[in-house]
Amino acid sequence: MVTPSGAHPLPGAVGLSHLSPYDWQAADGVRGGSPHLHLVCTEAYVVTGGRGAVQTLGPDGCRDIPLEAGSLAWFTPGTVHRMVQGDDLRVTVLMQNSALPEAGDAVFTFPPEVLADQEAYAAAATLPPGAGPEAEVAARRRRDLAVEGYLPLRAALLAGDDGPFRAFQRAAARLVRARVPAWRDLWRVGALAAAERTGAQLDALEAGDIAHLGEAAAYDSTPTRRAGFGMCGRRDEYAPPQMNNQ
To answer: CB 67: neighbour CB atoms within 10 A?
Structure first.
């Protein structure tokens, strides 16, 4: 776990949260979260209880992956995913490049006219602070708007037409393009630095140098926010650690 001061990242500089998908029924009768994709991060679900599913859209078409206690599912950048609540589904979420999703590496499947307007997208995607009634109303409105844009993408893929899906991916990339330099900085001091530390430790071991073992330590943390409104459901969140090249 991370230190209270955030001085050391989780293994591999991953992010971690605990999630219970929304129980709200959408326009198609499905109970669940807001469909979206990530541009550079792979995401994994480790199911700790209950049952449900994750719907995915990708070059391989549409999938409905069942989830139950003990299941593991993951998807790579560009895959649209929608968490579906079945019966008290509970998931531990692992995110590649922990700081990047918190910095905006996610785009909702809003309708094309919203995706085409940076200000309109930001207004639809942003929730008020806190976990009170106002935030819940906004989270549900955001989910419904994402489902509104998602259903035509899914229907087109099921009909063998990947054009709308590809257009959504292009729109998502345009929305985040200006953030890439900041993301690169976060990657350098996060995932890249973690990999480079391992390389340096391997070099040291090969040379008979075990100085880094003298820095061994244990860490722990607790969620910094419980039952917050996330993209897919209510989340227990851990603050992304501040990373360095040490």
So the answer is: 24
